[in-house]
Amino acid sequence: MSDLTKSEHPATGGALDPLSHGEGAVDRFPDPGLPEHKHRLSDKSEANAKRVERQVALIFGLSVLASIGGVVGYFAFPVGSTLGSVQASTLSIGLGLGIGMLGIGVAAVHWAKALMSDVEKVDERHPQRSDDATRAAAVQELKDGADDSRIARRPVLKGALVSAVAVAPLAFVVPFVGNLGGDWNVSRFRYTMWAPGVRLARDPDGALIRPEDVTIGSVWHVIPDGLDESEHMLEEKAKAVVLLVRLDPKDLTEEPGRESWSWDGIVAYSKVCTHVGCPVALYEQQTHHLLCPCHQSTFDVSDGAKVVFGPAKRALPQLPIMVDDEGYLAAQSDFHEMVGPSTWERERYVDYPVPDEEKAH
User: Fold this and answer.
1) Residue-wise pLDDT tens digits, 71-126
2) Which of 66, 185, 259, 277 has its CA 20 to 30 A from that of 155?
3) CA-CA distance, 300 to 108, in Å (whole number)?
């Protein structure tokens, strides 16, 4: 080691000293210092600074208008029973939120880059606890920095910033508060459009399904026939969507009393996850598993759609099916339990009867 430290570097000829501090240390890398400061246009004249200030205020103003537009859109495009109303409401609120938040970010960045101080500072290393004089100087530097940023001298920007930040949350607060008074009657999920004899139709074209159309391993997204004629089509579809799968009958395990709910290996289960209601739509043919893409709840189609993994706590409700006189797949009845996420009232409706006169009400 002693020979190495006293030798010459082959490329630079400088002494190879492993230490860069202490008595007799060799300073091999001189401090290059700070580059020459380049003044911005806003630094060169107050007129340029005022122009940037107006630009920032304008962007904040656009953010305010966008946020207000999102609130207006919530009332102007109420969610109805059509897909168009859902799209219009979602688009108006989303644009209001997105442009409002984007405006705040763009304005803040432009303000910082064009008006606030961009002079580089050097902070020398020192012991963690500075002396009182140094601490007082640091506090003074912070005050000087605030003065240098010209915040106090630009009330227009302060007002625009406060307005944009105050108004931006309204685009999602107002819809949230407005929906607090909605219909929280979870018993509406007790019944769906499925009833004895209602045929299974392919989603979205509504084509009726024959058993021979469904091959082993195939998956069909199914809705009740006549759904498009319903007054509340979207609400009814959200409850009644079904996933139809055909397995080899020898691979199918059926609970006692449910042997007649399938047809030659064809089974139908609710597509609404029993965790939080996401659409269960990913089918793995080899394992017969259905996966919910939201939180990875996994259901075994070959064994009553029971939960094999994930946060869901109960199996997917099964729709009893049959083949009608014309050879089409149809429902034997409605589901025998509530579809969707578990609720505090669900246990009241497990294996409930579904008389048509009660369902009509």
Assistant:
1) 998 888 887 767 788 888 889 999 999 999 999 999 999 998 888 888 887 777 76
2) 66
3) 52
Question: Using CA atoms, how far apart are residues 95 and 92, in angstroms rounded to an integer?
Answer: 5
Q: Give pairs for 256-260: CB < 8 Å, separation 24+.
A: 258/304, 258/318, 258/320, 260/320, 260/322, 260/332
Contact 214, 203 (CB under 8 A): no
Residue 207, phi then psi, degrees to nearest 5: -70, 135
For the record, the structure tokens of 295 come out as: 């939180």
Q: Which fold has domain 187-360?
A: Rieske Iron-sulfur Protein (2.102.10)
CA dihedral over 330, 333, 336, 341, signed as positive or negative: positive
Residue type, 209: I
> What single-letter DSSP state applies at residue 316?
P
At residue 84, the pLDDT reads 80
State whether residue 56 is helix, strand or coil: helix
- The tokens for 148 are 């240098």
d(CA 305, CA 292): 12
Cα gap 193→339, rounded to integer Å: 12
Q: Is 323 helix (H, G, I), strand (E, B) or coil?
A: strand
The domain spans of the chain are: 41-121+130-179, 187-360
- φ and ψ at residue 88, rounded to 5 degrees: -65, -45
35 DSSP assignment: P
- Please state the length of the chain: 361
202: exposed, middle or buried (Cβ count in 10 Å: 0-12, 13-18, 19+) = middle
Which residue's structure tokens are 């691979």?
251
CA 62 vs CA 66, 157, 301, 334: distances in Å: 6, 13, 52, 52
Q: What angle do helix axes 155-167 and 46-76 make, rounded to 10 degrees?
A: 20
The answer to whether the CB of 227 falls within 8 A of the CB of 237 is: yes
Question: Is residue 156 within 8 Å of 56, Cβ to Cβ?
Answer: no
Question: Which one is predicted more confidently, 260 or 118?
Answer: 260
For helices 155-167 and 83-114, the axis angle rounded to 10 degrees is 150
Helices (H) and strands (E) in the chain, counts: 9, 10
Retrieve residue 287's tokens: 């394992």
What is the model's pTM?
A: 0.54
